[in-house]
Design brief:
Shape of chain A: globular
Distance between the termini of chain A: 45 Å
Structural class of chain A: alpha+beta
Number of helices of chain A: 17
Largest sheet of chain A: 9 strands, antiparallel
Number of strands of chain A: 14
Largest interface: A-B, 47 and 46 residues
Oligomer: homodimer
Strand content of chain A: 15-25%
């Protein structure tokens, strides 16, 4: 059953790879596309490099008390990695002391005799101890096995400097000798990673007196964000290494309250626009290499969040030129979404083509109330954007529609007896349904607060499966004044990752299931994932809540 | 037992890695070493490149009638390798139509959707069909598993041009898809190998009317030699990729009757001298990368063959300067060898350190008579070299010693009743004992001819295990006038490889055992091996024997 469950989003994903709705001939963005892509290129940041060396020699140990059953133990100083017989040790683990993303190179040398034969090695780069402890094969995951960062290399002679062509993202490196000659021994003479990011030091940080756990969460959030800020906002530097709209939105929020590299946000907004479909619909994500190209996929919640990200960008930077440039894109996302509304203003789940709705990684989570809420929220944000740009005329029918949608939401999703929003045939009570109904102000905030409050106290409620889901819940808690609950959720959920040894925050985290994976393999999960960086945003945007 | 047998040469090899005999303080070649290495560098040839593409799509088929039980069948034109779904085919074999050595690169592309994940592939480069048909693991061989030419690569995105850092040597390439994403399919868009050699076209070739099998043997011998002629005379481009004295000797003989790249011979003679031990002894082999260095090993037969190679070089080129430069090296090899002679002029098998004697790859072959004969032969050749250089005074005691050695040989190894030379406690009758006693003219040539003739007609006699061994037998047959037998042996032995589909001649070939390997794995044998190229020398040096 697990296999089937995790495949549902993937299946929807494929359903949606055809042409989107509202096709217009020939290209909605023809007049601007080339200029948008040029502006995206001009805004491309220069990566900042630094040389990282191992900070310890380490071992991985099975330990049921540790996260996912494994812990890394430092066994020696890093100099013990060098000039040591690889034939004796067979396998060595280097701990680089922090999560890094970049190009790895290693100098191998002979110990004594000249090398008379090539050497075969396996290098395994690991974000997490489990990636060191558990074999990668046989592989059970639903995503490409090639995401796992083990490389088998042939060293033709010694000394030899190996530089891996693949960018790697890791804290730990395991080096295993697979084959060598009886005639000579070999060692590592040196190794390093040229770590890259487009940012280095945040411009905003919590006050000195901030509680140490909050500071720690902020630091790890910063590390997570930094690692994902490359020449685009990546979702994760290990996987998928791509620009997804949902991640962009949360990363740009966190960036606005930390590194303030607005140029990267601008680049990503233009890239997504320049690579949108001809009918105006945004693709959910973009791969940069070898040249920027969109994946042929539409996720409706992400399309709408683009508008929210654009509004935030304008608010944070005052860059009206960019926002005005991209206003037609925002309008098209509204048009796409409206296709899914019935006459009463309710999201109609039967409209074709059915679009993938991301929202969270969580089995059985019912998305109906959430998409209704998110759509309402995004329409409101689009109206705000229109006001800032003097484009109210373009969306003059939206305020009435929003009103209608809220009424439909209350009629359809709100259960006045229970005082919560329910979703789906099974009338599921989920954190996210309450969150999106709150963010969209579908009920007065006091009632939203009650719905949220009841839900998070209900052990039967469907809680989020990912930091991405939790972000919106915390935003909603703050919005309706549940500050203590917001803080508690942040310190509880992200603090749980801290307690379990996170160097960066994870794509998926379920406090009750260490090995949860939407891909049927916790090994292929991303453990430095952009959408989990938002404590940086909360802590620094709301110091009165989190910094005292 | 097999395991123990094939390890014996290796064991001797290790015994001998200490300092050689006759150590002189501090460096016998101090005045010249730097100049020798400089001259070696100056004589380094420029490699000639050519682009090679697959000539067919192929499959490998189990076939008990084929060599080693496998045959490659061409299934399609080479264009069917391209733009074909790798997800459907899973595995594809490209036949490049000839043995090539060089740098492989391949362009991978997506079929349709953009690549959303890396791809993992295994590329297996094969000289022989068995390398395509049989799994490499578990590996039973005594040499490094890393010699086997399978590389596991990660393609980070598509389109992507992969260029393997490792030089490969192969005819066939198998490409297997190990991991990919469900979201896109991929294909090969193009592939090629930049093949290299320092030679291209021979200056000498057999007459047009030469028998077609002889012409074929000559062609394959030329291909073998060309593949091994890189920036040194390599023993084999797949394995060991090194300059060994024994291979140099035979390659330079064949080169003198084909490509005539005398500069390469000069380079190798200087390299070996420049990297000899401080006591004057030559090391058996040299690795070029990353900078030329000698393997710490001495093989007595190879040391002595250096003198023979130097003489041949002088005779073929008239380059007295080089020969005179390197004369001290020749003298030192004679001095080393004399250490192993007892007062009667017999090679004393108890003298320490015991040196590895190569001669052949053949289990149980007794080398005593052969080393005695080779030493006598090499001393005679050194005297000839001395005469050409006017250095007779340096070796004035040698002629008497040679005489004494021949007498000792006759007394100790010749069995007048049987009319053959025997060797070892079991009085083994081997082809090579007769060959070396013939080449050294230990008996009048008529008696040598009888010994050889009897031996090759004796089904119990120990026949050579390698083309290297057969070379000396054929040279001996020619020397004592057994021309028909020489031709028959050449067409029988090398013709056997031709019949079994050789593109290049093999390191090891036993007509009675397809899977013979000195390394306990026929997969790690070299199937393009320099020491098997000498039909080129015989056919073109002795046209009256082979070309009519």
């Amino acid at each position: 059953m697990k296999t089937i469950k995790y495949m549902i989003p993937l299946l929807l994903f494929f359903v949606m790879t055809g042409k989107g709705v509202n096709a217009q001939a020939p290209d909605a963005y023809e007049p601007w596309r080339a200029a948008w892509l040029r502006k995206a290129e001009q805004a491309k940041p220069t990566l900042i490099s630094r040389i990282c060396k191992p900070t310890a020699k380490a071992e991985v140990v099975k330990d049921s008390a540790s996260y996912q059953g494994w812990k890394v133990v430092k066994t020696d100083s890093p100099d013990r990695l060098y000039r040591v017989s690889l034939k004796e040790t067979k396998s060595m683990i280097a701990d680089f002391g922090e999560h890094i993303t970049g190009t790895f190179s290693c100098v191998f040398d002979t110990l004594g005799n000249i090398s008379d034969a090539p050497v075969r090695l396996r290098l395994t780069f690991a974000e997490m101890p489990a990636e060191l402890g558990e074999p990668f094969d046989p592989y059970s995951g639903g995503l490409s096995r090639a995401w796992l960062q083990d490389e088998i290399v042939t060293i033709p002679y010694l000394p030899y400097t190996l530089t891996l062509p693949r960018r790697v993202s890791f804290r730990y490196l395991k080096i295993e000798l697979l084959a060598s000659s009886s005639y000579f021994d070999l060692c590592i003479a040196d190794m390093q990673t040229t770590a890259v990011s487009c940012v280095s030091t945040p411009e905003i940080e919590p006050a000195a007196e901030t509680d140490s756990l909050i500071r720690k969460i902020n630091d790890i959030g910063l590390a997570t964000l930094k690692e994902c800020m490359q020449t685009v906002y990546e979702d994760g530097p290990k996987r998928d290494q791509r620009l997804w709209i949902g991640d962009l939105y949360l990363e740009s929020l966190a960036n606005a309250y930390s590194f303030r590299n607005d140029s990267l946000t601008k680049r990503c907004l233009y890239l997504l626009a320049g690579l949108a479909r001809e009918d105006g619909t945004l693709n959910s994500n973009i791969a940069e290499m070898p040249t920027p190209r969109a994946q042929n996929s539409v996720t409706l919640d992400y399309c709408l969040l683009y508008n929210c990200a654009l509004l935030e960008y304008l608010k944070n930077t005052g860059d009206r030129e960019t926002a005005a440039d991209l206003w037609p894109v925002a309008l098209n996302q509204v048009r796409l979404a409206r296709h899914y509304l019935d006459d009463s203003g309710l999201y109609d789940t039967s409209v074709q083509p059915q679009l993938w709705l991301v929202f969270d990684w969580k089995d059985n989570f019912d998305r109906h109330a959430s998409i209704q809420g998110l759509m309402t929220f995004a329409f409101s944000e689009t109206c705000r954007l229109a006001r800032l740009l003097g484009k109210e005329a373009d969306v003059k029918e939206l305020p009435a529609l929003i009103k209608k949608m809220k009424k439909a939401s209350r009629d359809f999703f709100y259960d006045p007896k229970q005082g919560v929003f329910v979703s789906g045939n099974n009338r599921q009570i989920s954190y996210l349904s309450q969150a999106w109904m709150t963010l969209s102000e579908t009920l007065p905030l006091r009632e939203c607060a009650q719905a949220l409050s009841k839900t998070i106290r209900n052990p039967e409620a469907c809680y989020p499966g990912s930091p991405y889901g939790y972000h919106y819940v915390i935003e909603a808690l703050i919005k309706c004044g549940l500050h203590a609950e917001a803080k508690q959720m942040l310190t509880g959920y992200w603090g749980g990752m801290v307690e379990k040894g996170a160097d960066t925050f994870w794509e998926v985290y379920d406090p009750n299931d260490d090995r949860r994976s939407p891909y049927n393999s916790h090994l292929v999960n991303s453990y430095c994932h952009a959408w989990s960086c938002t404590p940086v945003y909360f802590i620094n945007k709301y110091p009165e809540i989190f910094q005292r």
